[in-house]
Specification:
Layout lengths: L5 H9 L12 H18 L5 E5 L5 H8 L3 E5 L3 H14 L4 E3 L3 H7 L4 E7 L8 H11 E12 L3 H14 L16 H10 L3 E11 L4 E5 L5 E7 L3
Parallel strand pairs: 1-2, 1-4, 2-3, 4-5
Antiparallel strand pairs: 5-8, 6-7, 6-8
Length: 232
């Protein structure tokens, strides 16, 4: 069985045409993208590297990594999102190889093929996040980097990421997130260890509703990034 929730695929497929609308539902992803990109490039120095973006959606992160000179492959199971990503790639002239394939399938097909693997805001949308983490670990070369981002599971994250972002500030469509699927950093780091990865760093991502500015820091209570490496 493919590790996918069809309800989640449908949810993002209905919004696919808005991926590159800077003032639409995906505005927060555009705003945090420079922070993600900096976190990744600071550690992995992606220029000239083979990079895989798992759950690439409309290609926001994938294109930005390709713009730095990485050879990027983006995979997703939402065909409409991939169509949008492909069209935008043609318009921007930034080449990305997009494929509709499950990460587990690609891991069997092409193990240890990438210098860097990224998986952003996807783990909380799949039935079996451990399977995704394991596949990402399999796809990266020994010595390579794997980056995850997801949402912590606690009262603060529920209030800010669900109630605040979806129902009060209307930053995200209602029903975007299912709180029970959020992952604590301890849970994600355990999944990474079980997959043979060494955790290198964890950084929290915070949003100030007054200044409307996102920043990286030590507070991992809501959204966080995790950098891991596969041992040589």
């Amino acid at each position: 069985m493919i590790n996918v929730d069809e309800t989640e695929i449908d949810k993002f497929s209905q919004l696919a045409h808005k991926w590159w609308d800077m003032s639409g539902e995906f505005k927060p992803l555009h705003e945090i993208n420079p922070l993600r990109l900096g976190f990744i490039d600071e550690r992995a120095a992606i220029t000239g590297k083979q990079v895989l973006d798992v759950g690439c959606g409309g290609g926001i992160l994938a294109e930005s990594m390709a713009s730095l000179g990485a050879a990027v492959t983006g995979i997703d199971l939402a065909k409409k999102s991939l169509k949008v990503a492909q069209l935008h790639s043609l318009e921007s002239g930034v080449a990305v190889d997009y494929r509709c394939v499950a990460v587990e399938e690609l891991a069997e097909e092409s193990p240890a093929s990438f210098d860097v693997v990224t998986c952003m805001e996807m783990l909380e949308h799949v039935p079996d996040p451990q399977s995704v983490v394991r596949s990402c670990a399999s796809l990266v070369k020994p010595g390579g980097w794997v980056f995850f981002s997801t949402l912590n599971r606690n009262a603060k994250s529920y209030l800010l990421a669900v109630v605040g972002a979806e129902y009060v500030l209307n930053m995200l469509p209602r029903g975007t997130h299912e709180y029970a699927r959020f992952l604590k950093p301890s849970e994600l780091s355990r999944m990474a260890r079980n997959a043979g990865l060494d955790m290198d760093a964890v950084r929290g991502m915070s949003y100030n509703p007054l200044t409307r500015i996102y920043s990286l820091g030590e507070d991992t209570a809501v959204n966080y990034l995790m950098a891991c490496r596969r041992p040589e």
